[in-house]
Write a structure and sequence with these properties.
About 70% of the residues lie in helices and about 0% in strands. The chain is an all-alpha fold. It is flat.
Length: about 80
């Protein structure tokens, strides 16, 4: 078995890489001419233009919120 905190370190490095990638995409979209590289808000706006896209984004938002904030919690009034 590995060290107890190793999984946490791997998760934090992974989240840092994902955040860095998203910031790099956004920076490239803001620096490049507007027609050549879309920003994240341009991509979301294009997806949310259609009703099905809005439902998909809503489902992804619920899924992400559940997995980041709710899963693993214990009800605070339970003994």
């Amino acid at each position: 078995m590995g060290r107890p905190g190793r999984g946490l370190v791997i998760a934090l490095v992974g989240y840092g890489l994902i955040a860095g990638l998203l910031l790099a995409i956004e920076g490239a979209g803001l620096v490049a001419p507007h027609d050549s590289w879309p920003t994240l808000s341009d991509m979301i706006r294009r997806i949310a233009h259609h009703a099905a896209g809005r439902w998909i984004l809503f489902g992804l938002w619920l899924w992400l919120g559940w997995h980041l904030f709710v899963r693993g919690w214990h009800f605070f009034l339970r003994a």
